Amino acid sequence: MKPLQLASVLLLLPGSTLGSILDLSSLQWTLKSQNGSIQIPASGPPSQAHIDLLRAGLITEPLLGINDFTQRWVVNENWIYTADLTPILKAHDPSTKQTNLLLFYGIDTIANITWAGHPVAWVNNQFQQYAFDVTDKMSPAGNNNLTVAFESAWLYGLNVTQRADAEFFPNGNGYEYPGVRQWVRKVASDFGWDWGPAFVPSGIYKPAYFITLTTAAGNTQDTGTPPISPSKPQENLVLGPVFIEESSIDIYKEGQSFSVAPNQKADWIVNVTLGLRSGVSTETPTMQLSFSELKLQSQKFNFEPLSQTSELQWISALWHIPDSVPERWYPHNLGTPKLYDLAVDLELETSGQKQSTHKISFTTRTGFRTIQLVQDPYSQEDIEQRGITPGDNWHFEINGKAFYALGTNIIPFDPFYARTTTDQVRWVLESAVKSGQNMLRIWGGGTYQPSGPSVAGGVYDFYSICDELGILAWSELIFSDSLYPINDFLLESIEPEVRQNVRRINRHPSNAQWAGGNEIEGIVVTVNSTIANGTHYLNEYVTLFQDFLQKIVTSETRSVTYTDCSTTKGVLSLDPYVLRFNNGTEGGIYGNGERYNYDATQAFNYSTFPVIRFMNEFGFHSMPSFYSWEEVLTSPGDFSFNSTVVMSRDHHPPAGDLSFPNPNAPIGQGQMTAAVELWLPTPNTADTNQTFAQWCYSTQIFQTMTMVSEVAFYRRGAGLGENNLGALVWQLNDIWQGVSWSSIEYSGRWKVLQYGLTSIFSPVVAYPFWIAETENLQITAISDRWEEVHGTATISLYDWKGTLHNQTETDYTIPSLNNSILFETSGLNTIIPAGGDARDFWILMTTKTEIDGKTFTSEQYFNPTSLASANLIDPQIQVTHGSKLTFQLSAKGGVAAWTWMDHPLGTMGIFVDDQTGQPLNAFYLIPGQDRTLKFILNEQLSKVKNPDPRDFVVRSLWNNTHV
User: What is the CA radius of gyration of the chain?
Assistant: First the structure.
């Protein structure tokens, strides 16, 4: 049976006086087009129209080929979901005093809802949860159906923008479905983005429930984290007169607020706030809190009586816990992500002739930590004694200590939220941790990520996994790359959306902050300075992001900071909250930044890199692997770098309209082509499939080279005047198989970049900073550790035959969050042997550091000339298959630059060093220095559980021009 269906049987018994929760997916559902030409069985929530059309065989997998174009008819249709309510209505006993609630955790997006022929509501916000009292609608008025009639979000958006009072926005919105998304509270990237398709889906994309509250005799209800999240076995879940519709658990320091930094020695405050629906009046409600692991129990908190009303009612308890009692939660690379089970016990007495006591108990996982975004000015002492460039701080502190944020950005995991799985998401998050990341930014053009699959209809797990793994999640409200209208109609919808999501996420210690949106501050500053009435748009921005949203977020949480935008110049003041915009002193550094450079000639020119306190977004695009293309290309002729289908899946720069294929794709393809041709051997072999595979691989090699160099530059900045304390690469995951900035492909396959990040995100790393114009080389050891570290770096000069010409070992000491210069010289003649050709040589840099009893190593490479002109030698790679998918790689000829091993189609997993267990791939394989890789299979995501070792492929740059 489906989840919660066993509990729902209690409701379906005639004359039952017990309350229950019925998962509406257990009903019989149909999906039909507005004109009735299509009518098919549907699966019920969570689902979306494309998913049900696919199940019915009316469309093929939307991600195949050019289906994002051929299936546009689905976007233009108004779809109607209908469920047969006969089982519910037949079981309803009008003589029994009941309250009946219809609960939707997510409707995407514009829909009219009717219950048994009675109008219920018109909804227009994908990110809200909705609860409707249908008690007076249990008698059919014409039919026995629950109907959710959707209007195309695209057509709705067009209608809104054609209103006389619709405001004009000057910044364009140039994606496939342009100009409407700021008027629709829906995933922005559903309308298209430069890394993904535009399906503009619709449907009841999260679970929905029918809830009955009764005046039955006293009962005990045990659940997991509310709302919903039932206990097991589920047949024991029986509701009394009260349902917990929302819960907020905010843990912070006494006296802490948005503008007041946490006092690390102060008591902890555990603020438990519950939103209740009550079917009866209750007297003397009480709440008691406890942490059994800490042997802590609060006093009983008493509340005012609850009324019998259709309105949501709130109770809140503040529990003081001494600072020294709990262990603190830390990101995985800075400590232990310690979690505790918080038990909440509610006791409610119903009033009236039949008094009874109802007990509701639930347990939720949470943790103790302080996380602060520091934005105050640097002191004169910092400037004079530490050499800090004047300006403002912009960094995070965990439990009172500044740390370096290493990570990436998250986009939606699938174009269709309803089919996203926890296995899929867990793999991506675990991959982030394996590569050394401690922070993920949840991009504001996507969706609010769920807590877990059973909490508020989450469908899959996200924040709970972040809590467990010890990775911080920078959260954003869903506003992105657009100016937004200010009117009561939208603000009335936005306020409950924001409140609901902030409350839900409060309990997660992994949550790092709330940003108002993505990249909008820079847009409005530009508009303000370039358009005659630009001040009007700036004032609207201030109203929405400085005043309206900030007040909502800070009224719902004290544990995290709010900032107006992902990329921002910071604040003039926190109390009152006043944004800085461009009001900074010349020569000072303010806020954070982002960088995108598509001129490959400047890829490694450090003078073009921003000197900034924190880099929250930077990237370069690449192809997915040949194996990912195999998942979606349907014709042999498609397997070519510039084939029509491949180019149609490059949306950079975006089309700006519904043109197909993207007329701007040659620009994006050209940027990747120029980068490869400039820095790597140009793929060209007698085998067209190999050439295509090498093009895919080569774009990933360049992406890795340029991103690793940027990460190193920003990490080095921790010890320079900018005091840079953050580098978040764009982006971690993919939404489909196409050209993107990701380090992990849609299937979960690691790109070269993901292995590259594993190396450059190592706690201690040596990196070569090369200034080509002056031929200056500086090799620097960089540490992100809180403690002083000691170690040894080895710098080795090789030729492409694998001959070692020079080797130097250097001991280093690196202060906290700082760096140490290992080697510095000017002129190629000081690096390579006298009379030598720079094209014949390269340098290997390794570090070895002991930290807390563990050995950390890293490996980086320096090429004094472009690899496109390097005198590579046939490496003659030999692969020896061992047991349990181990592979010994040997170079029998020359050095194999960027040796890369691919796992076959249908498998999922990563390659690790067989000795250390650390992720390893994409390295220089030197003759006489064999590497043994082991493939760790992910059985949950792999369709092929026992892959043949002979199906694994090894390639290097040599294969760009040689079969």
Answer: 29
| Cβ contact 61:114 at 8 Å | no
435 or 241, higher pLDDT:
435
Q: How many CB atoms lie within 10 A of CB 6?
A: 17
CB of 364 closer than 8 Å to CB of 350: no
**3-state class (DSSP) for residue 532:** coil
User: Can you name the residues that pair with 321 across neighbouring β-strands?
Assistant: 268
Residue 850: strand, helix, or coil = strand
Identify the weakest region by mean pLDDT among 2-11, 43-52, 302-311: 2-11
Catalytically annotated residue among 151, 245, 347, 519: 519
- The domains found in the chain, sorted by start residue, are 21-209 (2.60.120.260), 215-371 (2.60.40.10), 762-867 (2.60.40.10), 872-962 (2.60.40.10)
Rounded Cα gap, residues 548 and 487, in angstroms:
12
> DSSP character for 237?
-
Place of tokens 């942490």: 291
pLDDT of 237 > 80? The answer is no
CA distance readout (Å), 830 to 282, 679, 761, 776: 84, 23, 30, 10
Q: Report cis status (omega within 30 of 0) of the bond before 233.
A: yes
DSSP string covering 657-723: SS-SS-TTHHHHHHHHHHHHHHHSPPP--S-HHHHHHHHHHHHHHHHHHHHHHHHHHHHHGGGSTT-
Q: Which two tokens stand for residue 226?
A: 């509310």
Three-state DSSP at 209 gives strand
Is there a catalytic annotation at residue 519?
yes
Laid out side by side, the sheet with 764-771 consists of 764-771, 776-783, 818-826
Interval 601-611 mean pLDDT: 96
Q: Which two tokens stand for residue 337?
A: 């992500």
